Structure formats: C-alpha cells, structure tokens
Amino acid sequence: MVTPLSVAVKIWAKTIAMLIIIGSICALCLGVGWGILFVGLALIFGFFITLPLLIGISPLVKWSSLIPYSKQSRMGWLIFFLFLFYLLIFIGAGLLSVGYHDGFFGDFMTKDGAVCMLSIIVVQFIAVRTTRKSLYKLYEQL
Amino acid sequence: MNKDLVKIILVTAGAVLFNLVFWNEKLAINTVLFDAFLLSALFFLYPTARKSATVNWLLLGHLVSLIMVVVHNTDLSKIAFVVTLLLIAGFAEYTHRSAWFAGGSMLMNVVMVVASFVESIKINKGKPAKRKGVSRFIRFAIFPLILVIIFFLIYRDANNAFSDIAGRIGVQLEIFFGHFFDFFSWQRLLFLLLGLLITGSILLKSKLDYFSTRETRMNDGLQRSRKSLRQKRMSGFFQFVEMIMGKMASGMMALKNENTTGIISLVLLNVLLLLVNCVDVNFLWLHFQYKPGLPVYKMVHEGTELLIVSIVLAMAILLFFFKGNLNFYKRNRWLKYGAYAWIIQNAMLVSSVFLRDYYYILKHGLAYKRIGVLFFLLMVLIGLVTVFLKIWSRRTNYFLFRVNAWAGIAVLVLATTIHWDEFMAGYNLKRKNTVDLDVSFLLSLSDKALPLLDTNIVALQKRENDARLQKHNSQPVCDTCFIEELKQREIQFVQKQKELTWLSWNYADAYTKKYFRKKGLITAIN
Q: Which among A72, A74, A111 is the nearest to B186, CB-wise?
C-alpha cells in the first residue's frame, strides 16, 4: 500500500541526498580539511534537520493525486510546486538571516541566485522522476 | 493541425517573445507587441470569445489601459492592463458573468499551468521512443561517477604531481566554462521560464472549471427557499445568532422576530446617524472655518478612515438583514423604509467625508491618499446605490458583488487616463501661494513630474528658505537641498534611460527626456 507520506519520504530523501552530494563535492573542491568534516556532518544531521519538510511535501503529493490530469501532468505539477515550496523556504531563510532591506530579493536576479533556483528545479525533477513508480501507484490507488 | 500542438507552439512562442521584449526593459511600447501576440493567440484558440459582448467591452477597457501604458506609463495603467488582460482570458475561456468568478478561473489557470502544459505535450507525443537504454545507462553511471569524483579529489590532494596536472586541466575548464556562461545567461533562462508561466497561464485553459460550474448555480433574482432548522443550524453564523436570540431565532415566529429586531436596529442606527449628520451639516457644510492654531488634519482628517469603515459596515448590516426570506416577508415595509433611510443617511455621510477631504486638499494640496479617498467614496456611493437596488428589486448578493466589480473595473480603467503624479504636481504648484506645499513629497513623484518641478524649483527653494527663516528665525542648514535633490533625480533619470532600448519607449519618458535635452542642466540658484 502506497501512501502520500511514503512517496513524500522517498522524494524528500532523494532530494536531501542529492543536495548533500552536491554540497559535499563543492566543499571538497574548496578545501579538503573541513570538506570531509562537512560531508560527515551533512550525512548525520542533514536528514534530521530537514525532516519537518515532510509536513509540506506530503500534502503536495496528495494534492497532485487529486487534480484531474494525466499521471505525467500531475508529476509535472508536483515538481513545479515542490520547487515553489523550496523557493519559499529559501526566501524565508534569506529574510531571517539577511533581512528584506539588505536586498535579498535582488540577489535572486544575480547569476548565483538564478543558478540556485535552476538547481532546485533540476534536483526536484530528478527526485520526483526517479520516484515515478510509487507515484503512479499512488495515483492509481486514489 | 492538432489543437494541442498549436497550444504548445503558441505558449513557447509567447515565452520567447516575452523574453525578447521584456528582458531588462520596462513595460512600455514592448507591451503592445506582446499583447498583440497574446490576444491574437487567445482569439485563435477560443474563436467564439470574439462574439461575446462582455469580452468586447473588456477588450475596449484593455485597449484604453494599453494606450495609457504607452502614454502615461504609470503603475496604475500597468495594473489595469494586467487585470483587464486576465479578465479577457477568463471570459474567453470559461462561461462567466461575474468578474470575481472569472478571476477565480484565472487563478485556477495559474495554479494548473504546468499540468496543462505537460498535458498538451503528452497528448502530442507519438509512440514512446526506446529510452530504456538511456535510462539504464544513467542509472549505471551515477554511482561510479560520484565515486570517481570523490576519489579524484582525494588523490588530487594526496599527490602533488597529480594535483598539478589536475590543476592545469581545471584552469582550462574554468576558462572554457567561464566563457560559456558569460555567453549563456542563467537569469535569462529563468526569465524564459517566467515567460512560459505567464503565457501558459493566459492561453492554457485549466481542466478544473470549479468557478464556472459554481457560477452557473448563481442568480441575480432572489428566490424564496425553505430551510429546515437542521440545515440552518449547520451554519456557524446561525448558531451565533441563536446563542444571542435564544428560541426567538428558531421558533415559529423567527422571521417576524428577525423583522422586529431589524426595525429596532435600523431605527436606533438612523437616529444616531441623524445626530452625526446634523453635526456635520452644521460644522462642515454650513459653517466651516479653518481655526487658527488648530492643525487642519485634527479638524477634518482624523477619523476619516473610521467614517469610511462605518459606511462599509452599514452596507454589511443591510446585507445581513436582507440576506434571505425577510425580503419576502409581507410586513417588511418598515424594515425597508428604515433601510432606505439608512442608505440616504450614509450617502450624506459620504458627502461629509468628501467635504473633509476637499477642505484638506484646499489647505495642503493633492496627495495619493487624498485622491484615493475620492475614488473610494465614488465606489462606496455606487455600492450604496446597488444595495438600494438589491433591496428594492429583491436581488442576490451575487448581483451586488457582480455589479460592483464591473463598476470597479470601469473606475480603474478611467482612472488610468490621468497621469496622477503630473496632475498632483501641476495642481499643487499652481496653488503654491495658497497651499502648504510638501516639497519632499513633490520631489518623490515620478519622472513625468520632473519638468514641472524644474520650472518651479528655484521659487520653491526660496520659499522654503524664507519660511524657515521666519519660523525658526535661523538660516536653513542647507539652502539648495531641493535643487540638489532634483539634480540627482535628473541624473538618475538620464542613467536609467541609457540602460533602456526602444522597447521601453513611452510618451511620458520621451516628454521628460525632450524637456531636459532642450533645457540642458537644471538652473542654478542665483
């Protein structure tokens, strides 16, 4: 039996794993000393810290199964809304750490900001696409 | 050609056009190009829409807003342009009578745009190609690739000679990718996606027609309906009323009791409002005088917001009493008279608020909020008239909101025909000897007001300096501040214009540019 939560867990785990791998490679490229430490810490705490994200991912998976579209279209919808979800989290985190007046929104139109947003889309695409079997099973079930 | 294929082609073409005409530009003449494409595509995809009178009226409003975007280039004209465009799409794609429901359908389009786009692609895909091989290759490659990267990095740091070779290759790759990414803009790719979303939201009809199905059940005319007590008790509001009124809200005489409560409430409210109106007529309408020493905002401005809230609340009270079967109650004559009196008195209150605003404008000149109040009062007046119509001819709340939404759209479109910043600057400067001018506010107005300010700035600065000298009996700290500020605005304007191309051409900017080109630098103080 596939549930929205079980599918959400798979998508979440893949997303975090991918982000940890990308982060680790970047950290290793920048400097080995703390890079290894970063990989270790990310593996231990990464999943633990991001666990609350499931509160947002699970309903999105459920809603994607309720819209009257084909499986592929529902999957496309889910990828887009997961991207928006992560984007909102990034904006929220940015507002908390940088503050509105320091031009956080302006940063999104910089090269780094655009690369960051496109990376989220690619990571989400891979995470959802590789979970499509469970996702389709869920769509057939509901 | 397959309609879904056409949709994909049109949405993609729209996104490319959006990218070409709006990248690093402002909404101006480029809007005409994009709008022409969007409207042509919309009427091509939904040809029956051209026959709809609503769409044609909206099209007229939309064209007025579009012209105003090119002529005045104000934020208001841009808002009106977007609103009318979305409504045209809403009415072209779905069956609607109300702008609210059409707006809801467009919201659904926005939410479902990705699903609608993928759906069109999916329908057009032929037989699936053999991709299993590619997929298998990717799956086999991922893990080894990660291992190779990690071990490469470890060996690089462990072996100096290997690190040297790797470093040289790395530098070459960095140069290559540096050139590649300089040519290829990530921001522009993201902008293309935004264009895809915008064009898709307008052209692709969502499969969810929740709002149009809901609207088909709505009527303008109120119909008498019998509701059982159990059905009534389902609503939280009824439970609240029952808590206060007890059995009087649910017994056999419930309607009569509701009528009596309504009459008592309206009589008391009318008496209270009559007192307020009498005071206003005496002090504001007949014997108004600016009292020396007392700030004008204390006399007239304070409380304006509260009065506006009270008028809106008054309409809500009437909607509450005339929400259901009380409209059909035989002995509701006095309730109706009370409601009409309440509407007339509220219209008087609108006039009093208008007078307050007028006196404030006379003393301090025009400003955004003061003009906003005028528009709000106009909308409230239309609201009161429609509430009267609703009670008089037993109309539904749906009718009320529908008519008011159309009135709102008409007012919005008409409001775009005036460049308010220029109008405010012109009005205030023309009365600079009678009005307390806020020069800092005038200097914050949009670029179109700059020529007007430039012709008056020397006089304004002198006036300000003299006023300060008289008031504080001291020399001002900075006696050319306003002139410097205006100079800065001019420099900013010129710099901004340099970054834009012909795609951002609009009459307002062209006018200011022409003025400064003719005049040269801003006059220095003598």
A: A111
Are A74 and A20 in contact, with CB atoms under 8 Å apart? Answer: no
Mean pLDDT over A32-61 rounds to 80
The encoded tokens of residue B164 equal 């040297």
Which residues in chain A touch residue B181, judged by CB atoms under 8 angstroms apart? 111
End-to-end CA, chain A: 11
- Model confidence at A63, pLDDT cuts 50, 70, 90, reads very high
Number of neighbours of residue A81 by Cβ within 10 angstroms: 21
Structural domain spans, chain B: 244-395, 421-519
What is the DSSP-derived secondary structure letter of residue B330? T
Confidence of residue A56 (pLDDT cuts 50, 70, 90): very high
For an interface test with B, give the residue of A64, A69, A128 to mutate (most B CBs within 10 A).
A69
How many angstroms separate the Cα of B84 from the Cα of each of A119, B53, B102, B239?
A: 35, 15, 11, 41
State the best of A71, A73, A90 to mutate against chain B, taking most chain B CBs within 10 Å: A73
Size of interface A-B (CB pairs under 8 A): 65
Look at phi and psi of residue B246 and say left if phi exceeds 0, alpha if psi is from -120 to 50, else beta.
left
Low-confidence ranges of chain B (pLDDT < 70): 1, 123-135, 181-184, 229, 237-238, 245, 247-253, 294, 297-303, 471-477, 521-526
Q: B190, A117: Cβ pair inside 8 Å?
A: yes
What is the Cβ-side half-sphere exposure of residue B380, based on CA atoms within 13 angstroms? Answer: 27
pLDDT band at residue A76, thresholds of 50, 70 and 90? Answer: very high
Q: Which of B248, B11, B261, B212 is nearest to B107 (CA)?
A: B212
3-state secondary structure of B501: coil
- Between chains, do A115 and B186 touch, taking CB under 8 Å as contact? yes
What's the longest Cα–Cα distance across chain A?
52
Q: CB of B455 within 8 A of CB of B490?
A: no
A 29-58 → B contacts, CB under 8 A: 29, 32, 35
ipTM surpassing 0.90, yes or no?
A: no
pLDDT digits (tens, 9 = 90+) for B1-26: 688 889 999 999 999 999 999 998 99
Tell me how far the alpha carbon of residue B496 is from its chain's centroid: 25
Residue spans of the domains in chain A: they are 4-141
8 A C-beta contact, residue B254 and residue B325 = no
* Element at B56 (helix H, strand E): helix B53-71
Measure CB to CB from residue B153 to each of A28, A68, A117 and give the nearest one. A28
Chain B residues within an 8 Å CB radius of A68: 207-208
